[in-house]
Amino acid sequence: MSLLKLSIATTDYDHFRDFRLGPVRAEGLDINWLNLGHHECFARFTANREFDVAELSFAKFSAQVTRENSDIIGLPIICSRLFRFSSFYVNKNSKIKTVEDLKGKKIGSPEWAHSAAVYMRGWMHNDMGVDLKDVHWYQAGANAAGRKEKVELNLPDGVRLTRVADKSLSEMLASNEIDCAIIARPPTCFLEGHPDVERLFPDYLAMEEDYFQETKVWPIMHIIAMRKHILEENPWVARNLYNAFLESKNRSVERLLDPAVSRYPLAWLSTYGRKMQSIFGEDPYPYGIEENRATWEQMALYTYQQGIAHRQFKPEEIFPEGIMTKVII
Question: Is this model's pTM higher than 0.90 or not?
Answer without folding.
Answer: yes
